[in-house]
Amino acid sequence: MTRRANIVGAGPNGLTAAAVLAEHGFEVQVFERNPKAGGAAASGSTLGEGIVVDLGAAAHPFAYGSPAFAHFNLAGHGLEWKFHDNPLAHPLQDADSVLLHQGLDETAEQFPRDRRAWQLLHAPMVRRPQDILENATSPLLGIPPHPVLMARFGVRSLPPARMLTAAMLRTREAKALFAGSSAHSMLPLEHPFSSGFGVLFGALGQSWGWPVARGGTGSIIDALLRVLDGLGVQLHTGTEITDLAQLPPADLNLLDLTPRQLLAVAGSRLSPRYRNQLSRWRYGTAAYKVDYLLDGPVPWSDPRTANAGTVHVVGDASELASAEREVAAGRMPQRPFVMVVQPSSADDSRAPAGQHVIWSYAHVPQGYAGDAGDLIDAQIQRFAPGFKDRILRRVETSPAGLEAWNPNLIGGDIGGGSLSGLQQFLRPTASFSPYSLGVPGLYVCSSSTPPGGGVHGMAGWHAAHRALKDLGRS
Residue 13 and residue 458: Cα distance in Å, rounded? Predict the structure, then answer.
């Protein structure tokens, strides 16, 4: 007897869940509202024909080491990684940029007074990047694959990033570099566990780097789609599911949706207690995105910055901390944290010869309705005089625009929900089976479940295996 499964949402998690179930003999159908699969890992041509723009995520330390992607051998299905001279640069006012090198010792050499402290923070994780990523992308309420390493990571992760840098680091350069990686949490740097993001992102960058996918982030999706095609999965694009009743009969239904959409699509099937828990879900800091086509590389004050994959544009650690506090309080800072990715300096397929695609976003308050584009321009110009003169075209996408394109990005939240408070660990509810919606055969597999946001497919991987285990028991 053929077993059947439906997947709602064709982002990396939905597609990974589909691949797992198809590999286990299920007849799988995937339903996606947009005309193309990919979710927040899609690429497009919003800057013009022949220009590749990453519509969502751009740099991929998680995707490169994803256990799910390795299992399905995406490299064997056409995915190619491109690496920059340095994974990260952090420009400083009136000084050279501080660089995250793809090597721990080389990074630490930039700040001799903090060399030993920097190595102490990162060395255990840099030596075992695959193991720490497997820990970080496992369900949080359970025994991690590498428990001793997880304990060492946990000790470094518990303090707020602001407290840890004050206690362990003395130099302006080291504090800025660590604070910038910690800000990937999209939390105030005074928040507990924000240090974990600094350690994790720093360790991955100093081991295998923060690569980009040749041809755009959509190339990751193209490789996944080739896997699904080989497994006989049916993909229905341009098909929005607003109620479970629209789905064909199936043994399993997996939803790559955040809590607000779960309530809309499946609320009538859920218990009152579970609906109440989902209704309390909080969405967090948003992104305001600007994509640029330039007539050459960004003219950074420190030319080495042009060869870094990602650039944290904000200034010193104290300025970054202030900006993140303002955003968390619902106020727009005049000098926000801006993240820039420069794919063209490693991937010549993104734009015609001589031109460069620059991807950027600023952290802004949840649902921010103002215009942050000029502030982003000004922040980059501050560390790259003449930047504005290089702009051929630019496209802004507000938080509302991000949500209109991808309804999982509620209010511009690109992480599936705030990581503040217990939501960092209890996603989306307090449960040892976070992927189950409490209804036989019904599961959630979005970034609102462990391990959270990022292009890695691991939420879909874990949800599908949870569903298979439950089905076996029944």
Answer: 7
Instruction: Tell whether omega for the bond before 428 is within 30 degrees of 0, i.e. cis.
Output: yes
Does the reported pTM lie above 0.85?
Answer: yes
**β-bridge mates for residue 357, sequence order:** 293
Choosing among 3.40.50.970, 3.50.50.60, 3.30.1330.40, 2.60.40.10, the CATH entry for 4-47+64-80+213-281+417-473 is 3.50.50.60
Q: How far apart are CA 95 and CA 298, in angstroms?
A: 17
What DSSP string describes 355-374? -EEEEEEEEE-TT--S--HH
User: Per-residue pLDDT tens for 230-265?
Assistant: 999 999 999 999 999 999 999 999 999 999 999 999
The mean of the pLDDT values for the chain is 96
Q: Which two tokens stand for residue 422?
A: 């217990």
- Residue 456 clears pLDDT 80, i.e. is over it: yes
| All residues at 6 or more sequence positions from 196 whose CB lies less than 8 Å from its CB, including other chains | 153, 154, 156, 157, 158, 185
> Residue 117: its pLDDT value, please?
97
Whether the CB-CB separation of 308 and 85 falls below 8 Å is answered with: yes
**Cα 40 to Cα 21, 285, 292, 385, distances in angstroms:** 22, 16, 18, 31
Domain boundaries, the chain: 4-47+64-80+213-281+417-473, 81-212+284-405
